[in-house]
Every structure is written in structure tokens, then in C-alpha cells.
Amino acid sequence: MVCESCMVESKKVLEVSGLRKSFGSVQAVDDISFSVCSGEVFGLLGPNGAGKTTTLKSMLGLVVPDGGLVKIEGFDGLKDPKNARKNVGFLPERVALYQNLTALQNLELFAQVKGVSLSSCIPLLEQVGLADAMNRRVGGFSKGMLQRLGLARALVGSPSVLVLDEPTGGLDPRGVVEIRNQILELKKSGVTVVLSSHILSEVQAVCDRVAIVSGGRLVAVDTIDNLSSGLAMSPKVVLDVGESLPINIMKDLEAVEGVVGVEMRGCMLHVSCSRASMAGVVCKVVAAGGMIRDMQIIEPSLEEVFMKLTSANGGGK
Known about the structure:
It is a single chain. This protein is of the alpha/beta class. Helices cover 32% and strands 27% of the residues. It has a six-stranded mixed beta sheet, with helices on both faces. A four-stranded antiparallel beta sheet has the order 2-1-4-5. The chain has a four-stranded antiparallel beta sheet with strand order 12-13-11-14. Helix 4 (121-127) crosses helix 5.
């Protein structure tokens, strides 16, 4: 198949079709379908309670879905779970570790359970920045250190698919950057990453494509650029015009073909318009006697896309 994110031939590593899961009267996951390509970073995005964690756990067999199909590297996740999950690493939202053991002992114990050589444990701790803390008991670790150790544990056995549930939740800004950089490094090495998050900026920073989930249902799946285009969301040209802008220019700009919004914020002129109209906007300002001191183009953000899609679909449950 052709991967939508890079438009090159790439195989499907993960296929989810018609996934459903309810807890009593609550339909947590309602007919969710998507696929993920090899080497892709794929984001599952939605507000708290949208069904992201249940979707991931259903994919991995940690909860039994009511219906649907899950394939991981061609293996049926429900009928052949051992082979489907053998090359999958998982970082849960809440990392459970043995508090009285050191970081190295925790990792070695997991490696033994997984049947992996213990020689890989120290390099993994170095990879996630815990080399200096490998012999410290986990009970004294910060939230960021626990997340890094959880990531190292998920990487035991060099999985080809990595599933991360809210990997930056509760972290300080430094911890967020560290986890983000780890994800980007894993992508470079060819690992397929599926992550869930409600933090839009983090998803936008690392993901090739996103699936937006609201109220247990799939709202959209695509690249952020394609979602913006499909919603007819215009980029914005922002001009620093100081005090030089004539008062009547606002109506003149609104009349330019392709312009959908004009707003003045202090000395900054914000014009939402098509890319083809941007040159005309600049020319109109200059022709009216405006002096442009600076200019920047702002693309529609994932937050704007998310809010428009979820509002149109009723939001989360």
C-alpha cells in the first residue's frame, strides 16, 4: 500500500477494523477502524474518557473486545495473540514497577520473563538517560524517571511496534522533551510507534498521522495538513505594521478574493486567507501606505482541527 503520511510504498503493520468494547451501559469503543504503516508515528487523539486507552488495551489483548478485528504484522490479535504481540512493546499510562528493586533489577527481571538477554538492559537504560540511576531503587524515582524506565522496559527485546499510552502525562517540560526526542529517535531507527494523548501540541510535534476519537467513535484519520484542508481551514498571514496601517484598509482586505477573516491586534494584522491570496494581501497593505516590519505565516493548528471536528461530532461522552 501507499502510506498516506509519506506517499511511498509501505506495508501495514497494524490493522484495526470494527473494534467495539462496552462496560455495562457505556460504549467505550464504538466501531473504530484504522491502519498504521511500517515506520510511522501514529497518534490516537482525544479528550480524557474518549476511549483511547480502551482502544489500545483491546488492540493488545489486555481487555477482550466485544467485536472487531486486530492484526499486528499479519497475525490475528484475537486468535493468535502470542505471535501478534511478540514484537510489540507497551508503555501504559500508569507504569507499574517494583519499588524495592533498582532500575537495572526491574529491567533484568522483565528481560528474563520475556526471554531476552540481560546484556541489553544496561544499553537500554543508557538510551533513556538512566545510566547514572541504574543502581538506585525505583521507589525514590521521580515521575519523569519512572516514565523513562517504563519506556526502557517497553523497548526490551527491540520491538518493531511500540504502543505508548499518554507517554508525557504528568511530566515537567524537560521530561516532555526527553520523551518526545526518544520517540523521534525510535522513528529514525524504523520502529512503528502508536501513541495516545490528549496533549495536542505533543501529538503535532511527533506524529505523521492522527486518529481523532470522541465519545468512543472515530471522528477522522489523516495527516494534520489534510484534515485542515478538508475542513477548509485557512492559514493565517500575520503582518507587523506598527502604527502605519490606514483605517480603511480592513474593508479593502476583506474584499480580497480568498480572504476569510481580518483582525487587528495591537500593531499586528492577522489575515486568514488561502495561500494564493497572501501575495495580494501584502500588496494591498503596501499600496495603502502600510509599512510591513515583519511577516509570518501560521498554519492551522491541531488544536483548531480538533476543536472543529469534536464540536461537529458532539464531543466526548
